[in-house]
Amino acid sequence: HVQLVESGGGSVQAGGSLRLSCDASGVPYSYCMGWFRQVPGKEREGVAVSDRSGKGTSYADSVKGRFTISRDSAKNILYLQMNALKPEDTAMYYCAAIPYSCSRVPPLGAVQYWGQGTQVTVST
To answer: How many CA atoms lie within 13 A of 94 on its CB side?
Structure first.
């Protein structure tokens, strides 16, 4: 039984940092894991993905150099360290599991499992 549970969201001022966590119980080790985000009225978009080793990562251009995805395979936990946050980063952030290796952020249709989401709000 696969379950993705996000935590770590909250409210922060612009320039601040947050660290999201995703407890990915039951997700096979081979799966690609990633973070997506969605603003009301807009399509969900990919933010970052990591292969099973944690060494192969890919980021959306909008977050490169500010966000870092990492993966503790032993504990099956996925992280997203978000630094230099901007108001446009405000969104619901979702953890995702993709049933194949990923060298770049995949389309939404590739995601097999979703978490329930955690809200990130960045104020000016």
So the answer is: 19
**Strand ranges in 1-124 using DSSP code E only, listed in sequence order:** 3-7, 10-13, 18-25, 32-38, 45-50, 57-59, 67-72, 77-82, 91-98, 113-114, 118-123
Which one, of 59, 86, 85, lies nearest residue 70 by Cα? 59
Please, are residues 36 and 108 in contact by the beta-carbon 8 Å criterion?
yes
22, 115 contact by CB (below 8 A) = yes
Q: Which two tokens stand for residue 13?
A: 């001022």
Give the mean pLDDT of the chain. 95
Predicted confidence (pLDDT) per residue in 70-91, tens digit: 999 888 999 999 999 999 999 9
Count of residues making up the chain: 124
